[in-house]
Task: inverse folding
């Protein structure tokens, strides 16, 4: 009856000298894994988005948070005139990135996405391009 | 030395006042930093950091907590019994602090040619050259510990809330059952010391054997008594693993559910002051009081022993889960009580045989 109690005390005493696992968050930053799924980014090639507006990402999106509108440019190339991701609906599953046939979309390490206004959570094409 | 008040010289009163001040400030500071130490120690035992933000490594945390509670709104429930509701935290805190009056926390010191025993309710008679103290010190401590129940029961009853009431009821049942076993363990000490005066008990534990002079190691029966006394005291002051009166998983916060602001802080301080008192009493009765190797003054040893016991309390809190109510009662009545009763008889035989 006594030994289990003493063993318990021994364990807690050992833990007293372990290195704490706490991350002092705003001062210390977490190291993310390379395949961390954070904020989306549109890849750029030759100064323009690689996206060809094929509609695969809005189709595969389980949360239906991607809005794409296709348009033809001066060279008769199909591109996305409108590309919006509603982060309030996004579940960060990464299916859009997997579905993309031209590698136009990726996910970054950014995870601090809090904001004061609801409209700020809808990321437009310009804001998605900003983060290279 | 000429003026006598109630048959005692003026210096006695000065010394008394100074001792009260020192002891009270010591207890309050220890209370404040016991909360910090508890959070830190339990934090590290759970491989966390504990408070880190307020001051260097969170050192100002107790002050911030105190200030915060001080400025909080004072809520008195409309259906509460006002007078009892207001007086309950006072009873809890005062009875927790007042036990320190009889605990000798150091050797007799000499100041301006006047000898002062480091015990609030004690004085040094110059004529007889002997220190006197209250001759029923241990009974006084037991009495104050019992009075402390009133604060909690009144708090539970006067809040007019079912959680508080259940907490108060549990507290009273628990404290009364464990007081019995704790009181009986002390009988073993009285059998050894033949006195209830704490000065005498401490003096009796001195001697050349050092640690072996302590009552804890004097005989196997007092060893058992010491262990059981400490456990019963934990139950009496509602510390984990016996913190049923404020079991937050079942009773929100038990008897202090309806309390807010400084009144809540007073219950909290009472809890920690009780812990310090219990550790001090255990030190005095079983761990040789302020005696220790001579390279440090007595009060240093006293503080070191008390702090070691406080650490033990926190260590126990970090380790064990809470008892269930029926287990608690079974442990108190069916295990500790018979053992302590037998222990009294056994100590009696031991004393008879060894002397």
Result:
């Amino acid at each position: 009856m006594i030994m289990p109690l003493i063993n318990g005390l021994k364990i807690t005493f050992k833990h007293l000298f372990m290195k704490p696992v706490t991350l002092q968050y705003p001062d210390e930053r977490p190291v993310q894994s390379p395949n961390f799924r954070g904020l989306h980014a549109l890849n750029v090639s030759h100064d323009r988005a690689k996206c060809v507006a094929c509609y695969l990402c809005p189709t595969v999106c389980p949360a239906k948070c991607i809005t794409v509108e296709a348009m033809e440019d001066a060279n008769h190339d199909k591109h996305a005139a409108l590309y919006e991701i509603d982060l309030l609906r996004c579940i960060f599953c990464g299916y859009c990135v997997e579905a993309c046939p031209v590698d136009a979309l990726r996910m970054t390490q950014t995870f601090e996405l809090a904001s004061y206004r609801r409209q700020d959570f809808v990321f437009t094409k310009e804001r998605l391009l900003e983060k290279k | 030395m000429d003026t006598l008040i109630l048959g005692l010289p003026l210096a006695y009163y000065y010394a008394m006042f100074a001792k009260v001040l020192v002891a009270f400030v010591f207890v309050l500071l220890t209370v404040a930093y016991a909360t910090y130490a508890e959070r830190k120690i339990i934090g590290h035992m759970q491989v966390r950091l504990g408070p880190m933000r307020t001051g260097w490594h969170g050192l100002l945390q107790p002050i911030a907590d105190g200030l915060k509670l001080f400025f909080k709104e004072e809520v008195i429930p409309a259906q509460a019994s006002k007078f009892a509701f207001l007086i309950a935290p006072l009873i809890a805190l005062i009875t927790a602090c007042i036990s320190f009056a009889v605990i000798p926390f150091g050797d007799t010191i000499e100041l301006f040619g006047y000898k002062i025993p480091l015990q609030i309710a004690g004085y040094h008679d110059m004529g007889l050259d002997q220190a006197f103290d209250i001759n029923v010190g241990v009974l006084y401590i037991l009495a104050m510990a019992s009075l402390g129940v009133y604060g909690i029961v009144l708090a539970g009853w006067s809040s007019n809330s079912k959680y508080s009431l259940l907490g108060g009821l549990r507290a009273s049942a628990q404290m009364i059952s464990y007081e019995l076993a704790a009181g009986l363990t002390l009988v073993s000490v009285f059998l050894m010391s033949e006195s209830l005066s704490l000065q005498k008990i401490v003096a009796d534990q001195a001697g050349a054997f050092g640690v072996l002079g302590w009552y804890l190691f004097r005989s196997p029966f007092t060893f058992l008594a010491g262990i059981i006394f400490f456990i019963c005291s934990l139950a009496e002051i509602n510390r984990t693993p016996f913190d049923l009166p404020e079991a937050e998983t079942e009773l929100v916060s038990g008897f202090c559910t309806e309390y807010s602001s400084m009144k809540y802080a007073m219950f909290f301080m009472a809890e920690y002051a009780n812990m310090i008192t219990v550790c001090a009493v255990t030190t005095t009765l079983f761990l040789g009081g302020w005696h220790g190797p001579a390279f440090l003054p007595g009060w240093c040893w006293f503080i070191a022993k008390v702090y070691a016991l406080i650490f033990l309390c926190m260590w126990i809190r970090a380790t064990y889960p809470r008892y269930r109510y029926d287990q608690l009662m079974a442990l108190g009545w069916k295990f500790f009580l018979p053992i302590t009763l037998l222990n009294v008889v056994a100590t009696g035989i031991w004393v008879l045989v060894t002397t």
Observations:
- Residues 75-106+130-354 of chain B form one domain.
- Chain B has one domain: 75-106+130-354.
